[in-house]
Amino acid sequence: MTASAFPTDADAPVAAPYGGEEDLASGLSRLRRRAGAVPVDRWLAIAGGVLMPLGVVLVLIGWYGAAHTSRLFEEVPYLISGGLLGIVLSTIGAALYFGYWLTRIVASQRDIVETLARMDAKLDGAGNGAVAESQAATPAAGRLVATPTGTMFHRPDCPVVADRPRDELRTVTLPARGMSPCKLCAPLD
User: Considering the entire predicted model, what is its pTM?
Assistant: First the structure.
């Protein structure tokens, strides 16, 4: 074979570029539909709920068969078929049920995150007008404020004191003896 028989980079076929964002979006939507169609957590719970008790029953049958015979060559099949198979099935069932438990935890965490995101979006949407009103009602932004009987000082835009009228707040100057900074707004940072 000569050196010219090997293909060069110029002879190699050029890969077609990706079709576009529309193709990617449609592919992802099909993938989401397929993934959402199968309730994985339900199947994990069913399989784990069937295999664990089945394994325990097989272990008990193996024990009963081995316990009621006096010959060793008759006990070994009970030990293998009942005992070992039962332990394996129980272990697989426990692992599947553990997987079900993890999917439920993930699903609940996703629900919490989605709820917090919706709350944050509502607060951002409603907060634009309320922030301007609260800043007009509170002291200047460079000062620290506290409630009349409070032991913590805050920035004027802190959510704890932002909705309070100006006459319900007192100005705090540093060092404020007997007072601690708010952990929410961190006025000293």
Answer: 0.44
